[in-house]
Amino acid sequence: MKDPVTIQGQDGAFGAYIARPMALPAPAVVVLHEVFGVNADIRKTCDELTEQGFIGVAPDLFWRQEPGVDLSVTSEPDWQHGLRLYQAYDRDAGARDVKDTANVVAKLRECTGRVAVLGYCLGGLMTFLTAARYGADAAVVYHGGETEKYLGEVNGLDAPLLMHLAEEDEFISKPAQAEIKKALASKPNARVYSYPGQRHAFARHNGTHYNAEAAALANRRTREFLDQQLR
């Protein structure tokens, strides 16, 4: 039930990993990767979504720069490689890619037509931008780096949004987290959870700062949110 799929977007075609649950049709979740591309962690996230009855789809956000990026979170050269891609990444074009992915997935015969977007770090930021600019049936953000730079777009955010922030995130300062919470406080469909003592990527499989208890709590909240919004 796992095959690559090609997304025909506005700006060109790009690949995506797709995992399908046994029971179809099903709602879908577009999973947006970190600086490491569609790696083992992201594929595992898609696979776990199928166990919850969702189609999991992870598009290649870096296709314009370097198609097929699959980097290790434990390799320093891979980290540096990913950071170079991150710094050169076109976020405006990327948001179009995410919306194109959601549109294609919604029309798949095995999909119910309901599609959420869920992302981590870079993918979390892209989830926020896509939801604010183009809408979504639901949006889930795990530690979206630099989200505070785009809070001027929060007025466009009407989609149901769930956000997870690590209080000790080394890439999202406490003042930045406070700005994010303040901006989203006026949005009735937005919910922000903070995780005391946790650092960046606490929910990443096998990550340096992975915390099983905090990850389980965040993932349970995500599962309940997706069930509520997509079924």
Q: Would you kindly provide a written description of the structure presented here, covering whatever features stand out?
A:
There is one protein chain. The protein has 231 residues and is of the alpha/beta class. The protein contains six helices and eight strands. It has an eight-stranded mixed sheet, with helices on both faces. Helix 3 (91-106) packs across helix 4. The protein is globular and about 45 Å long. The mean pLDDT is 96.
Termini gap: 21 Å
Order of helices and strands: EEEHEHHEHEEHEH
In percent, how much strand structure appears in the residues?
A: 15-25%
Mean of all residue-level pLDDT scores: 96
Uncertain spans: none
Structural class: alpha/beta
Radius of gyration: 16 Å
DSSP summary, beta strand count: 8
- What's the main sheet like? 8 strands, mixed
Classify the helix fraction into a percent range: 25-40%
